[in-house]
Amino acid sequence: MTECPKVVVVGAGWAGLGATYQLAKQGYDVTLLEAGAQAGGLVSGWKTASGRSVEAGIHGFWYPYRNIFALVKELELDPFTPWTRSAQYSPAGLEVESPIFQDLPRLPSPLGTFAYTQFKRLPLSDRLSALPLMYAVVDFDNSDAAWRRYDAMTARELFRQYGVSDRLYRESFEPMLLVGLFAPGEQCSAAAALGMLYYFILAHQADFDVVWCRGTVGAKIFQPWGDRITALGGKILTNRRVSDFKLDVSGSISAVICGDENFPADAVISSVGITGMQRIVASSPALQKQREFRNLMNLGAVDVLAVRLWCDRLVKIPRPSNACFGFDQTTGWTFFDLNALHDEYANETGSVIEVDFYHANQFLPLDNAEIVAIAQQYLATCIPEFKNVQIIDSSVIRLPKAVSHFAPGSYQHLLRPITAIPNLYMSGDWIITNHGSWSQEKAYVTGLEAANLVIQQFRQGNMAQILPIEADEPHIQLARSVNENLKSLLKFIGL
């Protein structure tokens, strides 16, 4: 090509910003289109009418997020808290406390997780019932074959099949699913459950260690990141909702359509979530002609509810981040002490608490006052002092169909980075990738992978260097090798 290729990126979350930043660094004429009022998508924050900071839920940054940590270092940002400890509550009270695992002697995975996690009520016999599950962990290697093998099964069926006790499932594994995959076990793919549990908890002892943003992610990371993109020549345009694509005679996209505006494109990267992509498909005759995009309508998403409370007094909260289970059968929730996590609230005279509900279908129709009352009641069950506080201000943010739902059978409908449209590439936390990461890290990595595909297409610029996940420990590698060899032998002899 005789002039700089024009690339349009759709969606300004972790994936979209990652792709835009990489291409802008390589001198591409790149335009980022965001349907919302500011970059960041569901992770961005904003101010209430009274000037208080809120955001669409709190997002942790776990030890394996190697590429995001490298990014903030490159941007010369200091957005994160120190490593924090967490706790887990049920209506009966405190159930689990987690240490900072990297500070403890390292044991072979997953012994450190089991040995150092402090269960208050769960008997050892129930915890030991998880041992047979290690075969599934070894057998699930994040390959395409492994995903297809386990995706048709529910997570509940998986744990029952491997002999996990009902109590261990109810008090440990299902709470992890409710706050990690945002749905109860009978609604989650076993493949997604294994991928999530292995990445965050079982692969290496320190993987469950987490830091938090010292303010909204939008203010601490996305805003300065967007400024860097703009300084490099990239364009970030908000309030631009994509409705269709214009194709040329070869079947490639020649322009991205936003209402009355057309944005010429030599390549396009989609970085929107499942719900956003389904909206585009519903309005796009160009995409409807492709089966892979029509099949996206079979995917689902989960409702989230984010509640922020300002109290009239300080309440002592032992751990800054807390997960809760058993309050509603199909809903998990978390609460965070923002006085300990956010710089803005460090000197507040009253507690500032974030309460996030996942799979919150039954709460969304309620009015704000009812939701705030439920949040305070649940908090008081965990920490009784909350019974006596007065809520002096609050924010309720409803997020219908906001996060990816990895339901059983969904893998067959997920998209890969390369599509049937030659110059349309996909990224996001629901896109199939061999990298092995999860959640925000996965979204960011797939954005870099999509940018690399554009660079390969035009043969201009340097590829993004993507840090691989930490290698499996030697005993896990050996177990997987033995397992594969044994399966091959059994197949060879017809068993």
Automatic annotation (TrEMBL):
Gene3D superfamilies: FAD/NAD(P)-binding domain (3.50.50.60). Residues 15-455 form the Amine oxidase domain. It comes from the Bacteria. InterPro entries: Amino_oxidase, FAD/NAD-bd_sf, Zeta_carotene_desat/Oxidored. GO terms for molecular function: oxidoreductase activity. It holds the Pfam family Amino_oxidase. This is FAD-dependent oxidoreductase.
